[in-house]
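INFO  loader      accepted 1 record
INFO  loader      residues=313
INFO  predictor   begin
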Amino acid sequence: MIKSKNEIQDTGLSSKYQTRTQRIIEKNGSFNVRKTGIGRLESFNLYHYLINVSWPRFFLLALIFYVVVNALFTVFYVIAGPEHLGIETDQGALHSVMNSFFFSAQTLTTVGFGRVNPQNFWTNVVATLEAGIGLMVFAVATGLLYGRFSRPVTNILFSENAIITKWGENQTAFQFRIANAFSTNMMEAEIKLMGSWLEKVNGGTEIRRFYNLDLEYRKINFFPTVWTVNHIINEESPLFGKSFEELDKGDAEFLILFKAYDDTFAQTVNARYSYTHDELVYGVKYIHIISIDGTGRTTVELDRLNDFEKVEM
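INFO  predictor   done
INFO  writer      dumping tokens
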């Protein structure tokens, strides 16, 4: 087989697939890759996990850690003797345990209300150790919170479907739409689009190929509204002559890499997405969702990003 000039030899994704696969890029932008041959602890990084985990789970883990640490030191205080903290032991074991726990929380956070305080050597040792750990723990927690808040965050919306639509008099085009859901200012936005499908080689063996799909506009200066990304299917396009059935049989997937400069973070941000062959709609066109109101202000209806209508091909 003669290789197309658009074929990509090294994408960072293996081209050795010889069977149908799950989608390469998930809807959330992550790569659908499972790594084996390495221990779970070797592949796990606690800092990366806590930076990337969702906010509810982050606060839940922080709460669990806080309670567990205080419970551990409560055990030490009970062993050392609650009476050596000035806690009344004649009111029952539960009273002693709870007050030891509250004292632990005050020591860990360096609050120290003063009503309960260590009164012998061992309780002073435990309190000193806990205070030191508390300083380090909250320093780490502060760093994690700063890291989570300062990390560039994007909310790039992609249309639910990519489409094959009429283009000009006798051509077609592959299109999808994207928009920035945040009110941040983005500029120098750039898109890279790859097509990937199985092709038969060497008398029937299937192998996955990756092709660069040239775009009408690969880069735009400003990105305040909606960008309809357009690949014209002409004689130079790897999609030229391919039917819907061929894309389906070839397990086609279209991989997207978006990057832009975000003025809010003063950094380049990126997003990834993909469309599989069953998310491709033929013979439609996107509905116009940008309008000008009575005051001359531009309005974009993001809730209609995926709306399309039939078109004669």
